[in-house]
C-alpha cells in the first residue's frame, strides 16, 4: 500500500470536529443577523413593494416630491453643521489634552466621559436640553433674569434648526474626541524635531506636516459624524416633534400606523437614509485607511 493511500485512509477515518474557536462570535453573528441584516433587508424589499406585495418604483419616485426633498436637504444641513462644529470643537479639546500642556490626569476622565456622552441620545438627551435651553429652561431663565439676555429675542429656539444642531453636538463632540485622539497620538515626535531642525515654525509644522497627515482622519471623522447625526431618530422626534421637517420625523409619521400613514413610503424614506449614511460610512472607511498608512 502506498503512502498516499495510507494518508487518504487516515483522513477518511478522522471524525468531524466542530471548530470551537468560532463559538465566541456566534452571539455577535446572531445579533447582527437578527437586528441589523434582517431589518435592513425588510426595509430594502419593502421600499420596492406595494401594500399587496407587488414590485413597484412608485415609493422611490415619491422621494423626489418637493416636501420630501426639502426634508432630506434640512437633515443634510443639520448633519453637516453638527459634524463640522463637532469636528472643530472636538479636535481642539483632543489636541489640548494630547499635545497641549494640560495635566495627564485630565485625559482619563475626559475619554471616559466621551465614551459615555457619545452614546447618550434619544429621549433623555432631548429632555436634558429642553430643561436647560427650552423656553422655561434653567439656563434660559437665568440668562434672562440675571443677565438680561433673552435667547428667544435673539432668535434662538431649541425647537429650530440650530437648536437641534446644538443638541446633536452633545454626542458629536465626544465622538470626535474618541476618534481623533489615537490619530494625534500617532504624530511622531521625530517629525516635529526634524521640522524644527530645518527651521520650520510651529505654524509651518502644522500647515505642512501635521495637518496633511491628519487631514484624511479629520475628513473621515466628519463623514462619520455626518452619518451619526443623519441617522439620529429618537432625539429629533423627542425634541422637535413635528415642528421641524426632517427625514426622521417624516419616517416616524409614515410608519406609526395611523390611517394617514404609508408604511411602504416609510420604507422608501428609510432606504434613502441607508443610502446616504452608507455613502458617508464608506467615505469614512476609505479615508481612515489612508490615514493609517501614515500613522503606522
From TrEMBL:
GO BP of this protein: transmembrane transport
Domain of life: Bacteria
Membrane topology: Multi-pass membrane protein
Protein keywords: Cell membrane, Membrane, Transmembrane, Transmembrane helix, Transport
Record domain ABC transmembrane type-1: where: 72-284
Localization per Swiss-Prot or TrEMBL: Cell membrane
SUPFAM superfamilies: MetI-like
Major localization listed first in the record, in broad terms: membrane
Gene Ontology annotations for the cellular component aspect, listed alphabetically: plasma membrane
Regions that span the bilayer: 20-39, 59-76, 83-102, 122-143, 155-184, 204-226, 233-253, 265-287
Family: Belongs to the binding-protein-dependent transport system permease family. CysTW subfamily.
Identification of the protein by name: ABC transporter permease subunit
Organism the protein comes from: Rhizobium glycinendophyticum
Amino acid at each position: 500500500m502506498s503512502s498516499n493511500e495510507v494518508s487518504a485512509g487516515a483522513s477518511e477515518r478522522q471524525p468531524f470536529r466542530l471548530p470551537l474557536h468560532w463559538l465566541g462570535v456566534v452571539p455577535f453573528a446572531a445579533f447582527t443577523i437578527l437586528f441589523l441584516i434582517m431589518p435592513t433587508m425588510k426595509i430594502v424589499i419593502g421600499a420596492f413593494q406595494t401594500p399587496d406585495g407587488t414590485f413597484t418604483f412608485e415609493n422611490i419616485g415619491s422621494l423626489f416630491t418637493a416636501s420630501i426633498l426639502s426634508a432630506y436637504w434640512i437633515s443634510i444641513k443639520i448633519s453637516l453643521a453638527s459634524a463640522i462644529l463637532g469636528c472643530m470643537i472636538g479636535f481642539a479639546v483632543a489636541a489640548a489634552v494630547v499635545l497641549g500642556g494640560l495635566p495627564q490626569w485630565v485625559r482619563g476622565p475626559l475619554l471616559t466621559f466621551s465614551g459615555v456622552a457619545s452614546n447618550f441620545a434619544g429621549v433623555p438627551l432631548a429632555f436634558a436640553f429642553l430643561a436647560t435651553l427650552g423656553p422655561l429652561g434653567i439656563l434660559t431663565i437665568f440668562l434672562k433674569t440675571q443677565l438680561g439676555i433673552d435667547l428667544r429675542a435673539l432668535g434662538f429656539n431649541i425647537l429650530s434648526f440650530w437648536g437641534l444642531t446644538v443638541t446633536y453636538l452633545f454626542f458629536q463632540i465626544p465622538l470626535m474626541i474618541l476618534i481623533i485622539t489615537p490619530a494625534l497620538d500617532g504624530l511622531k515626535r521625530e517629525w516635529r524635531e526634524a521640522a524644527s531642525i530645518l527651521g520650520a515654525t510651529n505654524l509651518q509644522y502644522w500647515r505642512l506636516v501635521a495637518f496633511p497627515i491628519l487631514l484624511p482622519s479629520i475628513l473621515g471623522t466628519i463623514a462619520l459624524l455626518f452619518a451619526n447625526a443623519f441617522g439620529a431618530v429618537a432625539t429629533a422626534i423627542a425634541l422637535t416633534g413635528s415642528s421641524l421637517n426632517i427625514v426622521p420625523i417624516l419616517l416616524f409619521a409614515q410608519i406609526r400606523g395611523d390611517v394617514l400613514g404609508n408604511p411602504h413610503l416609510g420604507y422608501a424614506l428609510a432606504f434613502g437614509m441607508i443610502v446616504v449614511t452608507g455613502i458617508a460610512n464608506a467615505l469614512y472607511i476609505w479615508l481612515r485607511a489612508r490615514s493609517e498608512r501614515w500613522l503606522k
